Amino acid sequence: MEELFPLILVIISLVAGGIAIFFAYQLTRRYRMPFVNSYFLYVVFLYIFGAYSLAGAGLLERLLSSMEVEVEIIHSARLFNVLVGIPLLFLSKYMLVRGVTDLFSRKIHLAVSLVYFSFAAIFLVLYGIGVVRLTRFEQGDFQLMVKIQRWVFAGYMMVMYTSVFLLSLALSRQIHHHDRSFARTMGSGYLVYMVLTTATFLLSGLHRVIPSVFLTIFLSWHLIPILFMNMYLEKFHGVRSSVPKGFAEQIRVFTEKYDISKREEEVVRLICRGLTNQEISDALYISLQTVKDHVHRIFVKTGVRNRVQLSNLIRSG
Q: Which residues in the chain land under pLDDT 50?
């Protein structure tokens, strides 16, 4: 049973991570908001990294050990597993930061993106050189490589999640109360996530169960913020939060009567929720001019002159 317990934890973490991706994807379908899409990509990239480079490396080591493969080959396989997954780790953290900026309708400065990905490329090249020297030319110490890898990973996690927390605090000062509370709660939650993952990762050498505990936290934690995000979006950005009861039937009758297209219907729904043209542009991933063109055609079809008349026309049936 002691041998089986770490494997059970790994399976639980993989399943929980998969469920988190499914729920995050459902949010992107229900709420067409940039920060939701960025967060979904963050979860996907991080899950692939965790499943392939962390869980995959551990399972591969168990398999090769049971086949009595040489220790050097096992070490090489683990190092290459991590090397292949590093770009996904960098992408995941970038998408998390982008999600924060999208939430506050900001953009990541181009210079920041260039510096970040330049650092990622340099690190990947240096790490790759170290892995090749160690595995192919037997130059270096594997234990030292693992120790450096462990501390670099922990440091990177601390820097990125602390940055996300501080960025959330800084940008949330100029937004509505409920949005500010949501941003700060999410930031605090990932600060706790950072502490738990780095602590269990750094202590993974003390007992063979601890790496499995780390992986469980690393992949399963996202279910908590996703459920919290769902409650927040349902309350403050769902249809029920901004339109009256019976709106679905009213919009159906309206679209049939005035021959409103699917895209025009999406624009109408967002207009009735009080969104501006720019907010509609961001939500539907179309240009501002395209939104204006849709609004103009809707006004022409219905014979109204402004948004208030459009809303009254829909509600009047």
A: 239-241
